[in-house]
Amino acid sequence: MPGFSHGTVAVQGSTLHYVRGGSGPPLILLHGWPQTWWEWSKVMPALAENHTVIAFDLPGLGDSSIPSDGFDKVTTAKRIREGVQKLGFTQVSLLAHDTGSLVAYPYARDYPNEVTRMAVLETPLSGFGLEDFYGVSFHLGLNQTVAPVPEALIDNDDVSTYLGWMFSGARYPDRIDQAAFFQAYASPARRGAGYEYYRAFAADATNNQANATKRLPMPVLAMGAEFTFGPVVANSFSQVGDDVRGVIAPDSGHWIAEENPQFLIDCAELFFGPAGTPAPRPELATCVA
């Protein structure tokens, strides 16, 4: 994309790939599964008008190297934080989706003075509601199954079928660059790394519950899509944060950044922008900084 550049930064146990552009206060973007930094491509140019936007590939995914262990979200958050600091930033805002939101939480919880604001999209938190949805989609169970079960069941020829089925649940599947993500998970090693994030869910839940007294002090925007999680995201994060603002992304399924990018841009510009800027329309009221 014009105005953006690729880079890598070495962190303990991994090398992180990122895409960076813009100028201003740093805004860190963390993607979900089965995606990469590319899920943010429709919103990054607008966000970069007022922020230094840095979209990371999570360790093991996209073009980041695959660590030998440490796919729990606390370890992943430490790796992302190390990458952020090596890029020269000590205080950031976070915008995260799906698995990325599960990483953003311990980042903000364990380093509260380093996170000014956080927006989490389309997932309840492990230990605080995510488990209630394991029966909604079989991938949540399959991906957590001990190795090498999912690795053996999903081979290279099955990637477009499996991930295509995932994306078919979108409100607007054609708005998602599915081919890019099929390619990103064409490697068995990349698929295995993705499964490891799910296999760590139980440990994540235990850690989150044990540390729930460390309540999030910063403003948290908890966004659910109209046709998937809706208010569930805010209900979950309200159990661990003191200033959680729930918002519903209209006319969107799970992949808000691609299905309704303009709403996400409008909301993010308010939430991460100057305090007191009025919402231009009612559905953005809780996005105001």
From TrEMBL:
<dbReference type="InterPro" id="IPR000639">
    <property type="entry name" value="Epox_hydrolase-like"/>
</dbReference>
<dbReference type="GO" id="GO:0016787">
    <property type="term" value="F:hydrolase activity"/>
</dbReference>
<dbReference type="InterPro" id="IPR029058">
    <property type="entry name" value="AB_hydrolase_fold"/>
</dbReference>
<feature type="domain" description="AB hydrolase-1">
    <location>
        <begin position="25"/>
        <end position="261"/>
    </location>
</feature>
<protein>
    <submittedName>
        <fullName>Alpha/beta hydrolase</fullName>
    </submittedName>
</protein>
<dbReference type="InterPro" id="IPR000073">
    <property type="entry name" value="AB_hydrolase_1"/>
</dbReference>
<dbReference type="Pfam" id="PF00561">
    <property type="entry name" value="Abhydrolase_1"/>
</dbReference>
<keyword id="KW-0378">Hydrolase</keyword>
